[in-house]
Amino acid sequence: MSVTYKQRQPVTVSFSGMDGAGKSTQIEALCSRAREAGLLVRVIPFWDEVARFTSVREKSGHALFGGDKGVGSPDRPIERRDKNVRKWYMSLVRLFIYSADALSLRSVVRKAKRSGADFIIFDRYAYDELANLNLRNPFWRAYAKLLMKLVPRPGVSYVLDADPVAARARKPEYPIEFLYSCRESYLTLSRLLGGMTILPPMAVRDVELRVLEHVLQIAPEVVSSRANNDRPAQTQLGGQSARPAAS
Questions:
Q1: Fold of 11-230
Q2: Can you tell me the distance from the alpha carbon of 214 to that of 13, in angstroms, rounded to the nearest whole number?
Q3: Nearest C-alpha neighbor of 106 from the set 69, 65, 152
Q4: How far, in Å, CA of 21 to CA of 226, rounded?
Q5: Domain boundaries, the chain
Q6: Angstrom distance (rounded) from CA 80 to CA 75
Q7: What is the reported pTM?
Q8: Could you read off the pLDDT of 131-166 as tens digits, one per residue?
Q9: Residues 6+ apart with CB under 8 A from 167
């Protein structure tokens, strides 16, 4: 039986990982291929559409800890002081803020699923906040499990693993020691929660192909149904595209 548009459930995909891991590049590549296949795609930036109290968080972090503002680049490195601050009182603040973000995320996911999109792609997810906690502590491990029971799990959750040195070279914002700790937190979180697909460090194009292959496995009916109805066969997701995919 063919799957009609109204019967299909949208595929939710999240991309997580340390700063400089290449999330934006892979999101752009997946969006490009999906749209070439005639799929309707919605990208949800976590900080812009999910996170609560963003203005207060950014201003207070700068005022309290004196870190730089903005986004770092190879020709303009900066030193941020926010999520890498691991004081006990910041953990209590994060307990409140991350819980508020989780409730917001539930609402955002519900609304996005009613938007008519075939693919809903999250640029960061709740995992990226939980990775900022001390997951060696039993309390924070229990909190992470509880919070993820409140938050809808994406159809697939990608974690882009990366070499911390290479990641910092692409996006110089945090000390290298923090990035090593951050990387370990994502791997610990994957073991703790399960259901997260770790993409190991490799060339950008190889990561792109791995993502496309995996998407075809988890949502072949969405891909084939929309693409066959709306676009020629040669533009289906994962096949030969009409123009080069973004990299």
A1: Rossmann fold (3.40.50)
A2: 11
A3: 152
A4: 31
A5: 11-230
A6: 16
A7: 0.85
A8: 999 999 999 999 999 999 999 999 999 999 999 999
A9: 18, 19, 20, 21, 179
